[in-house]
Amino acid sequence: EVQLVESGEGLVQPGSSMKLSCVASGFTFSNYGMNWIRQAPKKGLEWIALIYYDSSSKYYADSVKGRFTISRDNSKNTLYLEMNSLRSEDTAMYYCAKDGMAPFDYWGQGVMVTVSS
Amino acid sequence: DIQMTQSPASLSASLGETVSIECLASEDIYNNLAWYQQKPGKSPQLLIYYASSLQDGVPSRFSGSGSGTQYSLKINSLESEDAATYFCLQDSEYPWTFGGGTKLELK
Questions:
Q1: What's the pLDDT tens digit per position in B5-60?
Q2: Sign of torsion, CA A52 A54 A57 A61?
Q3: Contact residues, chain B, for A6 at CB < 8 Å
């Protein structure tokens, strides 16, 4: 059974940094691209980053480019999202999601990131 | 960026009815369109990919169609468990973009 478990939830001040993790199981992690997607409270979904299976390519939404970094450690079956210069508008539920034959075929349960003074 | 305009924003229907949700892309996305269902407090789940391919385990009352810039999700014979918010996604070009969502309420 595919499982994606995010961690790193928390409340931080504007301008600070935070790192999210997503541990994968139930599939060969090193064979698949992985994504981060977020959802602000009572809002829609926003794709924010993708990393290829071998880390050879990374893509970002304009809203996070230059501030967020996606990475992965295939030896640990873990996906990361390093978030710097956080703003109030980054407050959201953050999901990791696996790519397969289709985008986002499996999702984690999500972690809440709140940016507030 | 490709804009995805989803309609309607909300929808109310009765058990057993058939409903359709539309997504209009700002440019041709060559069938690179997926549909997701999100129930309150839960993560989204993939329903349809490549415009009309049904994800494993998804009931056959869900179907997708369309081409070019216009796509739709059809749900036949509505069941109570279909009450949810539905989102479309274009994965034709980065940045991938979602539609604004359609909240489906069962009467």
A1: 999 999 999 999 999 999 999 999 999 999 999 999 999 999 999 999 999 999 99
A2: positive
A3: none
